[in-house]
UniProtKB/TrEMBL annotation:
Family classification: Belongs to the transthyretin family. 5-hydroxyisourate hydrolase subfamily.
The entry's keywords: Hydrolase, Purine metabolism
EC number per UniProt: 3.5.2.17
Species of provenance: Deinococcus sedimenti
GO MF, any single term: hydrolase activity
Catalytic reaction(s) noted: 5-hydroxyisourate + H2O = 5-hydroxy-2-oxo-4-ureido-2,5-dihydro-1H-imidazole-5-carboxylate + H(+)
Biological function: Catalyzes the hydrolysis of 5-hydroxyisourate (HIU) to 2-oxo-4-hydroxy-4-carboxy-5-ureidoimidazoline (OHCU).
The protein's assembly and partners: Homotetramer.
Taxon lineage: Bacteria, Thermotogati, Deinococcota, Deinococci, Deinococcales
Superkingdom, natural source: Bacteria
Protein's name according to its UniProt entry: 5-hydroxyisourate hydrolase
Stretches assigned to the Transthyretin/hydroxyisourate hydrolase domain: 6-121
Record InterPro entries: Hydroxyisourate_hydrolase, Thyroxine_BS, Transthyretin/HIU_hydrolase, Transthyretin/HIU_hydrolase_d, Transthyretin/HIU_hydrolase_sf, Transthyretin_CS
Length: 122
């Protein structure tokens, strides 16, 4: 995806594959106000079908991406052979700042049943 905008994808690092069917919400944060901008769900490639913010519509400011991962990891068999009926992680919220609205921001989530990480991708 090229040009200014905002995109994401989710990788399941425990299984070594994209995380499909993860609900995602994007909010814009203005002081105490939190405004829902969009909802999406990851596809079989772990990406949303469309950018969360299309090219040319990104603004500087603070945003929150919330990934609802509990259902993805429910009943996952752990390395000890037990089932994880109640996942450790439920909602993962990433708050980040867009400083350059002319740049493309890609915010991936690498997640396992017990941990997660992110970075600013390209």
């Amino acid at each position: 995806m090229s040009g200014a905008g905002l995109s994401t994808h989710v990788l399941d690092t425990a299984r070594g594959r994209p995380a499909a069917h993860i609900p995602v919400q994007l909010h814009r944060i203005d002081g105490a106000a939190r405004t829902l901008l969009t909802r999406a769900t990851t596809n079989t490639d772990g990406r949303t079908d469309e950018p969360l913010i299309p090219r040319g519509q990104l603004r500087t400011g603070t945003y929150e991406l919330t990934f609802h991962v509990a259902a993805h990891f429910k009943d996952l068999t752990t390395p000890t052979g037990t089932s994880q009926a109640e996942p450790f992680l439920d909602e993962i919220t990433l708050r980040f700042t867009v400083a350059d609205a002319t740049a493309h921001y890609h915010v991936p989530l690498l997640v396992s049943p017990w941990s997660y990480s992110t970075y600013r991708g390209s």
